[in-house]
Specification:
single chain; 41% helix; 259 residues; 11 helices; globular; alpha/beta; binds 2-phosphoglycolic acid; 8 strands
C-alpha cells in the first residue's frame, strides 16, 4: 500500500473551551515549540477565536479551523454559522459529524452529507468523524456502522474532491472516557475505513486520504497509535487543552509525512 503521500496531521479539538485570550496565549507558546520536523498541526477552536487564531497562525504552519457549520450558505437559521463565514474569519477546515453533534444534537448522516458538500463548495477541508458506540461494538456491527457512515456522509461527493476530506475514526466509547482503542484495534478499524473509501472511489484515492484516530489520545499512547501503518494522525480532545500534553503528543508523532 502506498502511504507516501499521506499527510501526518495532529488536530486539537478544543470543544467549548478557551476564550480569545486563552487561545492567543496557547498559540504564541505553541509557535515557540514547533520545528520543521513537526507534523501538521490543526487547531479546531471556538468560533469566537477563529479570527485571532488565524491571524496569529499566519506563516507559522498551524492550520486553524472550526468544529461545526450549517449546510446552508446563509438564511434564517438563528444561532447557526455558515461555512463562508468561517472562511471569512480565517478557518481552513471544519470538523463535521463529531459524535457529540450526532448524539446530543441528533445530526443524521444525511445532514452531515449536506454539510460535507457545502464545506467543499466553500473551500474548507472537512474532517469527517465516524465511529461506533460500545453497544454496536459489542453487537459486532462496528464495520457495518462505519461503512454506513462513510458511504452516506460522502454520498455524491465527486471522487476528484475526496482529497479535500480527512477521515477521523473515533470510537464513541473512547471519547472522553479514558478508554483508548489499542493500536491494533484502531489499525483494524482504519484498514476497514480505507477499504470503505476504496469502494466509493478507487485504490489511489483511498490510499491518499489521511485517516486520524480520536478517543482519549494522551501523551502515553500517541506514539503506539502513530506507529500503525493506517493511522495518519490524531484528533485530540481533552489532552489538547494543555500545551504541555498537546505538544508531547505532537512531538511523539514523528515527522511530516507518513512513510
Ligand atoms: P478526547 O476527545 O480526546 O477527550 O477523548 C476526542 C474528540 O472528541 O475528538
Amino acid at each position: 500500500m502506498s502511504t507516501e503521500n499521506r499527510q501526518k496531521i495532529i488536530v486539537a479539538n478544543w470543544k467549548m473551551y478557551k476564550t480569545i485570550g486563552e487561545t492567543a496565549e496557547f498559540i504564541k507558546e505553541l509557535i515557540q515549540e514547533l520545528s520543521e520536523q513537526s507534523p501538521s498541526v490543526y487547531l479546531a477552536v471556538p468560533f469566537t477565536a477563529i479570527k485571532t487564531a488565524s491571524d496569529l497562525a499566519e506563516g507559522n504552519d498551524i492550520v486553524i479551523g472550526a468544529q461545526n457549520m450549517n449546510d446552508a450558505s446563509e438564511g434564517a437559521f438563528t444561532g447557526e454559522i455558515a461555512g463562508r463565514m468561517l472562511k471569512d474569519a480565517g478557518a481552513k477546515f471544519v470538523i463535521l459529524g463529531h459524535s457529540e453533534r450526532r448524539q446530543i444534537y441528533k445530526e443524521s448522516n444525511a445532514f452531515i452529507n449536506r454539510k460535507v458538500k457545502r464545506a467543499i463548495k466553500d473551500d474548507l477541508q472537512a474532517i469527517l468523524c465516524v465511529g461506533e458506540t460500545l453497544e454496536e461494538r459489542e453487537e459486532g456491527t462496528t464495520q457495518e456502522i462505519l461503512n454506513k457512515q462513510i458511504t452516506e456522509c460522502l454520498e455524491g461527493v465527486d471522487v476528484s474532491e475526496l482529497n479535500k476530506i480527512i477521515l477521523a475514526y473515533e470510537p464513541i466509547w473512547a471519547i472522553g472516557t479514558g478508554k483508548t482503542a489499542t493500536p491494533e484495534m484502531a489499525e483494524e478499524a482504519h484498514q476497514f475505513c480505507r477499504q470503505s473509501l476504496k469502494n466509493i472511489s478507487n485504490k489511489e484515492t483511498a490510499d491518499s486520504i489521511s485517516i486520524l484516530y480520536g478517543g482519549s489520545v494522551k501523551p502515553d499512547n500517541a506514539k503506539g497509535l502513530m506507529e500503525q501503518p493506517d493511522i495518519d494522525g490524531l484528533l485530540v480532545g481533552g489532552a489538547s487543552l494543555s500545551l504541555d500534553s498537546f505538544f508531547k503528543i505532537v512531538n511523539d508523532s514523528g515527522s511530516e509525512s507518513k512513510k
